[in-house]
Design a protein that fits this description.
The chain is an alpha+beta fold and 463 residues long. The protein folds into three domains: 169 residues, Beta-Lactamase (2-Layer Sandwich), CATH 3.30.450; 85 residues, Helix Hairpins (Orthogonal Bundle), CATH 1.10.287; 140 residues, Heat Shock Protein 90, CATH 3.30.565.10. Helices cover 55% and strands 16% of the residues. The chain is built from ten helices and twelve strands. The strands form three sheets. Strands 2-1-5-4-3 form a five-stranded antiparallel β-sheet, with helices on both faces. Strands 7-9-10-12-11 form a five-stranded mixed β-sheet. A hairpin with a 5-residue loop joins strand 1 and strand 2. Helix 4 packs parallel to helix 5, helix 6 packs parallel to helix 10 and helix 9 runs antiparallel to helix 10. It is rod-shaped and about 150 Å long.
Length: 463
């Protein structure tokens, strides 16, 4: 598996190297095509110039072999050169049996033996004025043959050889420059790619280490260094926020377990104490002890049921099924179900409902948990009555539950919805926590405050 640095650097380098190499290759191909075409045109121009020279001297035997080939060929080469067409062309005279008679080569050494031998071998099969490519070593030459008139029985043929040495040298020099630029670009690309990959890889590695520490239960955030990449900085902030939320949840869970164990331990110890007293004969009033054991058992059952309810509501697997409920009908049902508890406490439970039905999006199971827990809490603290009022406020339906019990202490008010937090005469400390979780699961809001008579709880649900 490749590292992030390698993943970033490799395509960067491939692109920065292959692209210039491809450009150099195409450039060389285009230049070679252009040079060869230009050289062929040069050869054709030399042939045309030679024809013109030959015609201008056709009144006599202009090629007088009696005086040798040096003087007439020199005159011919000067006449052709005067046309400025034979800059890169050399002339060689061969007999009809392909033997070299004369070689006029101003470059001294250009027409080496290997080239001349190849020309001698190919000359019998060469067509007049047709251009051929001949290789001699690493060099390429363009060659054409032109038969001269005159010359007696020798019947000489002028072979014109065009070389591309200067163009090839120039092209090699350009290639060296281009390759140098490519290497310099590759070196710069390596530095840039390394720097870029480091800027990405190092923060990612830091975040990876941080994630491992979070997985091990260590929520300490690393120092926030300079990050000039927006996405990485956003990722860092997200991981830090996640760490803070996990740490808060971890603290809440630890507190929850401690409080739950304490709340469960109290009735269990009471039950155990009375049971041991009965078994050992220490407690004489067995009937009273049995009643206390029954009450503690009921309290323990209620606490376990509340814990299970809270766990179910806050579980990620809980599937809520919201629907449009007629709140007037469901509140009447809840009041009827709470009537027995109101009679037990000898309190009045009143409903204040609008004349027209008011509907809201909610789930009956969750809403009953919230409303009935708050009503139960209110009946325990109220002096004479608890009022359940339903009204519309903007785009929300609001259920207000108030009592005349004197209100919630200012010190307790900010924490009334915390798990296991019990104010004066508190019970398990889970009822209001369940109400809050149920309402928020439905997408609603819950709040608590005091009015002139007592405590008021409001549940706001979207219409």
């Amino acid at each position: 598996m490749k590292s992030m640095k390698s993943k970033i650097r490799t395509p960067f380098l491939v692109l920065i190297i292959l692209f210039p190499v491809a450009i150099i290759f195409l450039f060389n191909a285009a230049i070679r095509i252009y040079v060869e075409r230009d050289t062929r045109n040069e050869l054709r121009s030399v042939v045309s110039a030679m024809e013109a020279v030959e015609k201008s001297g056709s009144k006599g035997n202009w090629l007088n072999t009696a005086e040798g080939y040096d003087r007439p060929m020199a005159r011919l080469y000067k006449l052709v050169s005067a046309s400025r067409m034979a800059v890169n062309v050399d002339l060689h005279v061969f007999s009809r049996n392909s033997k070299l008679l004369y070689s006029f080569d101003e470059t001294e050494g250009f027409a080496d033996k290997l080239l001349l031998n190849k020309i001698e071998n190919r000359l019998p099969s060469m067509q007049d004025k047709k251009i051929y490519t001949v290789r001699a070593g690493a060099q390429r030459y363009l060659v054409t043959a032109y038969p001269l008139t005159g010359g007696g029985l020798v019947r000489p043929t002028v072979v014109m050889v065009a070389h591309m040495t200067e163009q090839t040298s120039w092209l090699h020099a350009v290639n060296l420059i281009l390759f140098g630029i490519t290497l310099a670009g590759a070196a710069a690309a390596v530095l840039i790619a390394n720097r870029l990959s480091s800027q990405i890889a190092e923060p990612v590695s830091e975040l990876s280490d941080m994630a491992k520490k979070i997985g091990d239960g260590s929520f300490a955030s690393p120092p926030h260094g300079k990050r000039d990449i927006l996405e990485l900085d956003a990722l860092y902030q997200s991981v830090v926020e996640m760490s803070e939320r996990l740490e808060a949840n971890d603290r809440t869970q630890r507190t929850f377990l401690q409080n739950a164990s304490h709340e469960l331990k109290t009735p269990l110890m009471s039950i155990q104490g009375y049971a041991e007293g009965i078994a050992k004969g220490v407690i004489t009033d067995v009937q009273r002890a049995a009643e206390l054991i029954e009450n503690e058992s009921k309290r323990l059952g209620t606490l376990v049921e509340q814990l299970l309810t809270l766990s179910k509501i806050e579980s990620q697997t809980y599937k809520k099924e919201l629907s449009i409920l007629n709140l007037c009908d469901v509140l009447k049902d809840y009041a009827q179900r709470m009537g027995g508890l109101a009679a037990k406490y000898e309190k009045l439970l009143e409903l204040d409902l609008p004349d027209t039905p008011l509907h809201a999006k909610a789930e009956d199971t969750l809403l009953s948990q919230a409303v009935m827990n708050i009503i139960s809490n209110g009946l325990r603290y109220a002096k004479t009555h608890v009022t359940v009022k339903l009204f519309r406020k903007g785009s929300e339906a609001v259920i207000g539950i108030s009592d005349d019990g004197g209100g919630i202490a200012d010190a307790d008010l900010p924490r009334v919805f915390d798990r296991f937090y019990k104010g004066k005469q508190g019970n398990s400390g889970l009822g209001l926590a369940i109400a809050k979780s149920a309402v928020e699961t439905m997408g609603g809001r819950i709040s608590a405050f005091n009015d002139s008579a007592g405590a008021v709880f409001e549940i706001a649900l979207p219409l």
